[in-house]
Amino acid sequence: MARNRSGSSARGKQVGKNVKLMPDSQIDFSDIPESTVDELRRARRVGRPASGMAKQLIAIRLSPQLLDRLRKMAVKQHKPYQTLIHELLEKAASRAA
Question: What does pTM read for this prediction?
Answer without folding.
Answer: 0.50
